[in-house]
Amino acid sequence: MQIVVMGAGYVGLVSAACFAEFGVKVTCVDKDENRIARLQKGEIPIFEPGLPELVARNAERGTLRFATDFVSALKTADAVFIAVGTPTRHGDGYADLTYVYAAAREIAQLLARYTVIITKSTVPVGTGREIARIIHETNPKAEFDVCSNPEFLREGSAINDFMRPDRVIIGCESERAAEVMKALYRPLYLIETPMVMTTLETAELTKYAANAFLATKITFINEIADLCEKVGANVQVVAKGMGLDGRIGRKFLHAGPGYGGSCFPKDTLALVRTAQDKGVPLRLVETTIDINDKRKKNIANRIIAACGGSVQGKTIAILGLTFKPNTDDMRESVSLDVIPTLQKAGATIRAYDPAGMEEAQQLLQKVLWCRGAYEAMQDADAVAILTEWNEFRALDVVQMKEALKQPILIDLRNIYRLEDMKAAGFKYWSVGR
């Protein structure tokens, strides 16, 4: 099998490397010449555990290569994956499909043999049909099928999610295309991965429905956490009791500052816009978006309250800047709401993140960037944990107290035990406990 992956961003690069590991010959193309030049030299432009080794191994054995021009690769390709960005369109919340449709036109102009065109990017319902229309219009003689194959990759564990997924969703409507897709995913058939073969529209909607449900689940437990704080309950025990019910499950029942990242915020909004256009408003998802936005904006007020109601003239240490651990992704991170709000309230910010510092420096101003957790806490009036990186899970409480002016810890990820922090002499705030 030979394929082309259009887009060397997060989804495209991970997918290309994993297909190459399956033994497929992959050409990963991107118009960003600097990105491709870096990849050709073995430099990985994103932080994802295991990805550098995977790319290096398959580049060396010849199953993975990178290019800015895919004309020659397309001539022998069995399939082309469109894995370009679909950001929220400025001003209206719809998914911006500019790059997807541009890729479809470029592919259409070069098709000379039967090829399966597959959307790996997260796209609204109807996108596959529009891609087919564009290709037909651009090249009436083209022989092709369009498939939808949404990704379910979690940043920080994307390699395992691709190699051992819960399921693979494939939307296609011809036996010929289905056979190509089955051949590509044959290694997963061998380990009995569930394969859901369905229509284009169903596959496209499945991706959005899954993300919207998970976002709602997070938002639900965050609201329960707020109630726990008022009635004296412990949200972690409540979540455990709920999660032991097989109908509910334990995952995504972790109270915190709200969801962020590259998927949930834009995908829930795009789903809402699609539903509104069809006259079927999704009130539950609309409310989820509203609650989450307000929660992220209110987190700074929790920190201010823990500091006695004012941070004017105070120094606050922030540990964790990315939206989740094991990634350098800052998109929709709670830190982008918290830090400017604290600064506006008069605080000086000292911050540290194991992987997101470079990206954070492009997005946040007037922050004192530190090289480690204890350096960030040095002479600070309080410390807040925003992201649950492993290195923040076992901080030395003695060293923390020596560094801080006052032993105040705002733990927005519920990493530490209440009794342990009380015994250590900390003024300790967490979520829903």
Question: Which features characterize this protein?
Answer:
alpha/beta, 433 residues, 3 domains, 18 helices, Rossmann fold, six-stranded parallel beta sheet, 45% helix, N-(1-d-carboxylethyl)-l-norvaline Dehydrogenase, domain 2, 14% strand
- CATH topology grouping of the largest domain: Rossmann fold
| Helical proportion, percent range | 40-55%
Q: What is the strand tally? A: 14
Tally the helices: 18
Q: Which range does the strand content fall in?
A: 5-15%
Structure, described:
This protein has 433 residues and is of the alpha/beta class. Helices cover 45% and strands 14% of the residues. The protein is built from 18 helices and 14 strands. The strands form three sheets. Strands 3-2-1-4-5-6 form a six-stranded parallel β-sheet, sandwiched between helices. α1 (10-21) links the parallel β1 and β2. α1 crosses α3, α10 runs parallel beside α13 and α12 runs antiparallel to α13. The protein is globular, with a radius of gyration of 24 Å. The mean pLDDT is 96.
